[in-house]
Amino acid sequence: MIDSVKKQDGKKQRRVLIRGYAISAVVLIAAAIILWIFPDKTELATTTARNYFLEMIKILPAVMVIMGLFSVFISKKQVVKYMGKSSGVKGILLAIFFGALPTGPLYIAFPLAVALRKKGASVSNIVIFLSAWACIKIPQELIELQFMGIKFMAARLVLTIIFMVIMGLFIERTIEWTDNRRIGVSQEVEK
């Protein structure tokens, strides 16, 4: 039993690795074709790619440290309790708070979202976390207040939060519905 589970995990890891290489190869081929068609954009494209790469190299080690600390110090039980499916308003508020706190680019949040999901956070809270990371930043809110005024900032903030919650709940229900449909179809096929 244990050996078959290990074999399945190994096969799954190989598939994920192969898919990652395949996606990278497709992107590189597409980039080469585009640069061949538009040779005048080569310098701009390579400079932009290099700048993004250097930015990621600076940020990713910190993300890895944070993920390591998260996996060691925060238990699955705590994540399920505070951000799981039955966490309710408390989970929503925590997702908004933890999403609004950092000021880095959104791609940093994706590994953290995966770690949250593996530890039992609900899909809706992960969507809210990612949306808050993208749309609500505490320093950004202060600058927005200074330039746009309290009415604009408050209206945008309230509407953003409302739509983040609606979107999170909608995506969670949609995923549940498609998973249930897939399970139903596979059970019918087995009969």
Mean pLDDT: 87
- Spatial shape: globular
Task: Work out the helix count.
Answer: 8
Instruction: Tell me how many strands there are.
Output: 0
Q: What is the terminal separation in angstroms?
A: 24 Å
Low-confidence stretches: none
Structural class: mainly alpha
The fraction of residues in strands falls at under 5%
Order of helices and strands: HHHHHHHH
Percent helix range: over 70%
Largest sheet: none
Radius of gyration: 21 Å
How is this fold's topology laid out?
Elements: H1 2-37, H2 42-73, H3 76-83, H4 88-100, H5 109-118, H6 123-135, H7 138-148, H8 150-190
Helix pairs in contact: 4-6, 5-6, 6-8, 7-8
Note down, in words, how this protein is organized.
- The chain is mainly alpha-helical and 191 residues long.
- It has a domain at 75-191.
- Helix content is 86%, strand content 0%.
- It has helices at 2-37, 42-73, 76-83, 88-100, 109-118, 123-135, 138-148, 150-190.
- Helix 4 runs parallel beside helix 6.
- The mean pLDDT is 87.
Main attributes of the structure:
mainly alpha, 191 residues, globular, single chain, 8 helices, 86% helix
